[in-house]
Design goal:
Elements: H1 5-13, H2 20-38, H3 43-59, H4 69-89, H5 109-113, H6 115-131, H7 134-145, H8 150-157, H9 161-176
Helix pairs in contact: 1-2, 2-3, 2-4, 3-4, 4-8, 7-9, 8-9
Length: 177
């Protein structure tokens, strides 16, 4: 069985630089998907934010108090959010890249078959997600896009599991209405 995130963090704290690559490979794909969503598909900006996040992680490694798997995931997600705010939310509107939602779609054979239908669905989904508050949209993203359990969602955003379940159901109802 592979090493856990906490083992990679402990090895990094002890100066074992070889622990960085497996930590990165285990966590970067999910964080990148989150950033692609938050940046409207701007891959270059997402990669830049992800890189800054991991640099901050390494610089602040000793500040990470708990090293349990979920604590490390929550810390990384918060680091990514903070870097995103630093790069995007604080930038003047005129400087922000606006990438069409279509850039997020994977080009595949099935996409070609029903391209128009999917474009309409994606627009409707974006409008629905934009109507949610940030916490609810994050819960939907973590649960549906990243496939996390209600407990994992609760741990990542710092609420109880029943509250995460309730917020998820409320957000889903809001999306469907």
């Amino acid at each position: 069985m592979g090493s856990s995130l906490s083992q990679y963090i402990q090895r990094l704290r002890q100066g074992d630089q070889s622990a960085f690559l497996p930590l990165y490979e285990k966590t970067a794909p999910g964080l990148m998907r989150f950033l692609m969503w938050k940046t409207n598909g701007d891959r270059a900006l997402s990669e830049d934010i992800l890189q800054d996040s991991f640099v901050r992680l390494l610089v602040n490694l000793d500040k990470l108090e708990a090293v349990e798997e979920l604590a490390v995931q929550r810390y990384l997600l918060q680091m990514v959010k903070n870097c995103h705010i630093d790069k995007v939310a604080r930038a003047p509107k005129a400087e922000r890249n606006c990438v069409p939602l279509e850039a997020l779609k994977d080009v595949s054979e099935s996409f070609e078959a029903n391209r128009a239908e999917q474009a309409i669905e994606m627009r409707e989904l974006k409008l629905a997600m934009d109507s949610l508050n940030e916490k609810d949209s994050e819960i939907i993203w973590l649960r549906d896009a990243l496939g996390l359990s209600h407990k994992e969602v609760a741990d990542r955003i710092g609420i109880s599991e029943p509250a995460a379940r309730q917020a998820y159901l409320r957000a889903k109802r809001s999306l469907l209405s």
